[in-house]
Amino acid sequence: MAEPLPRPELAAPAPGAVIPGTPGRPRHVAIIMDGNGRWATNRGWPRLVGHRKGAERVKQIVSACPDMGVDWLTLYAFSTENWKRTTEEVLGLMGIFARYIEREAGRMSAEGVRMRFIGEREKLNPKLRGLMDKIEITTSGNTRLNLTVGINYGGRDEIVRAAVRMAEKVRRGELGQDQCDSAAFAGCLDTAGHPDPDLVIRTSGETRVSNFLPWQAAYAEYEFTPTLWPDFSPAHLAEILDRFGNRDRRFGGV
Ligand code: IPE
Ligand code: IPE
Ligand code: MG
Fold first, then answer.
1. Where are the domains of the chain?
2. Its quaternary structure (predicted)?
């Protein structure tokens, strides 16, 4: 087993909950939620029906995570490449994100969920951006689960923006050139302050990473499951988490 990573402050776990960070359990799980379109198409329904069903799954998985010992959950909701889809699908997805934030705000606070977003926000519509900014503030004191959602997120885009931020810090004299190491760079990423994911799960049977967390997941374990995201239940997640304990993470050691 690797040395446990330094842990951020966490609220006392709920009675009966698995203590977060239990050995053999991933504390940070990241999920590429794929397969919504196929789930709907298989039933002869519009793709957006699959996205709506997918959002229902997000609620269940978010609620289930703390009791499974997961205290960081990062979800890939919309990539920098997903703008290639039809206007109808893109606008439909943006509407689903906005409604999710509006309707789930109360439950997230009740369940101690801190919600944050990664990705480039300038391109998103102002209403959605406003909701994102607001929920980040209203849930900032919650500590039971750190939920981070990638919207207009692309790993390469994030790395380029981080490089610009780091160069700007050097230019302003806040960071010496000799201090430009990986820790300083990680602090310029959208995920600054997040631990690296221990486990990345992709649903729908595709075995690629599609520009998701390339820097942060450098040493993550991967699980690919054929289950389409709208069918992915907390029981599926529990099964994957159980298997994680059998992995030998060596981080380059022996
Ligand atoms: C994942 O499902 C959700 C997003 C990428 C927004 P897809 O929409 O990619 O579903 P498939 O892969 O076409 O089935
Ligand atoms: C990855 O899924 C992005 C999200 C899940 C948000 P895609 O469906 O966009 O990825 P590709 O096109 O199969 O690589
Ligand atoms: Mg897909």
1. 28-154+196-244
2. Homodimer.
- Give the mutation target among 32, 33, 36 for probing the ligand 1 site: most ligand atoms within 8 A of CB: 36
Looking at the whole model, is its pTM more than 0.85?
yes
CATH homologous superfamily of 28-154+196-244 equals Decaprenyl diphosphate synthase-like (3.40.1180.10)
Q: Is there a catalytic annotation at residue 82?
A: yes
CA of 148 to the centre of ligand 1 (A): 18
- Interval between CA 35 and ligand 3 midpoint (Å): 5
- Please list the pLDDT of the chain residue by residue as tens digits (254 residues): 344 433 334 443 343 334 445 668 899 999 999 999 999 999 999 999 999 999 999 999 999 999 999 999 999 999 999 999 999 999 999 999 999 999 999 999 999 999 999 999 999 999 999 999 999 999 999 999 999 999 999 999 999 999 999 999 999 999 999 999 999 999 999 999 999 999 999 999 999 999 999 999 999 999 999 999 999 999 999 999 999 988 999 999 99
The Å distance, Cα 177 to ligand 1 centre, comes to 41
Ligand 1, atom 6: nearest CA belongs to which residue?
A: 78
User: Taking CA 115 as the corner, what is the angle to CA 38 and CA 166, rounded to the nearest 5 degrees?
Assistant: 100
Whether 67 sits among the annotated catalytic residues: the reply is no
Q: How far apart are CA 3 and CA 48, in angstroms?
A: 44
Please tell me the chain's helix, strand, coil percentages from 3-state DSSP, rounded to the nearest 5: 40, 15, 45
The answer to whether 203 and 237 have CB atoms below 8 angstroms apart is: no
